[in-house]
């Protein structure tokens, strides 16, 4: 990310500028996931995908060696049932021209990535794309590694290359930005209630209280 884009309002995400690539959330990759509780990564990446759909952000699914590593997890495929993930042999997603072309076809420069594993399938394309003029955001809680050290060192390395670490709920918050944008509020609320954990429960409670007030209840 260029120096002028690291701070200020323009450094934040908008749906209109964003494109998402979700990399290799497959059974083989989850089998050795030890940096996070695997169910949390599943929850978070599906939440991110659903948020992208709410805000109409182009989202590209990828797998590596699908016949050996398995199909992309069902929760992700169900968000985009019409999409066939791009299946690669390249370890580095950004070396597969089909993925690069799909991203460039959107005309968007704020590239949001999540993948398994962090130090390989996320860090490699993030670092390369950052060097090619994209503003790259790595969704750290929708990604993971075989070890906590592997994940942490990868995040440090990406930061040194100008990549911005972010969580999936922060992405949703920046896309929404203003609760007066009522068109996306119901979708955002649904995603938060399904995948936001305690935050989602609290948000549902707040919505209930606001609804009661609007209806004249206690």
How do you describe this structure in short?
The protein is an alpha/beta fold and 218 residues long. Helix content is 49%, strand content 13%. It contains ten helices and six strands, in the order E-H-H-E-H-H-E-H-E-H-E-H-E-H-H-H.
List keywords for this structure.
single chain, 218 residues, alpha/beta, Rossmann fold, six-stranded parallel beta sheet, 10 helices, 49% helix, Hydrolase_YcaC-like, Hydrolase, hydrolase, hydrolase activity
| Helix content estimate | 40-55%
**Residue-averaged pLDDT:** 93
Order of helices and strands: EHHEHHEHEHEHEHHH
**Gross morphology:** globular
Strand content: 5-15%
Count the helices. How many? Answer: 10
Overall number of structural domains: 1
CATH superfamily membership, which one? Isochorismatase-like
Structural class: alpha/beta
Sketch the major β-sheet: 6 strands, parallel
The poorly predicted ranges are none
Question: CATH topology, which one?
Answer: Rossmann fold
CATH architectural type: 3-Layer(aba) Sandwich
């Amino acid at each position: 990310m260029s120096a002028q884009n690291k701070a200020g309002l323009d450094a934040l995400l908008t749906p209109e500028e964003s494109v998402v690539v979700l990399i290799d959330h497959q059974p083989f990759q989850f089998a050795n996931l030890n940096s996070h509780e695997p169910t949390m990564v599943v929850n978070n990446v599906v939440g991110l995908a659903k948020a992208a759909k709410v805000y109409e952000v182009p989202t590209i699914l990828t797998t590596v060696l699908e016949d050996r590593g398995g199909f992309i997890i069902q929760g992700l495929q169900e968000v985009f049932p019409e999409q066939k993930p791009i299946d690669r042999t390249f370890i580095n997603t950004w070396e597969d021209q089909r993925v690069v072309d799909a991203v460039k076809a959107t005309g968007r420069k704020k590239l949001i990535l999540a993948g398994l594993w962090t130090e390989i399938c996320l860090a490699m394309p993030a670092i390369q794309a950052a060097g090619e003029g994209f503003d790259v955001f790595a969704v750290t809680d929708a990604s993971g590694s075989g070890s906590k050290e592997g994940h942490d060192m990868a995040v440090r390395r990406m930061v040194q290359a100008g990549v911005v670490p972010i969580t999936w709920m922060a992405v949703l918050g920046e896309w929404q930005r203003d609760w007066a944008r009522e068109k996306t509020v119901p979708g955002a609320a649904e995603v938060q209630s399904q995948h936001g954990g305690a935050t989602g429960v609290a948000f549902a409670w707040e919505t209930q209280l606001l609804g009661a007030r609007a209806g004249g209840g206690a």
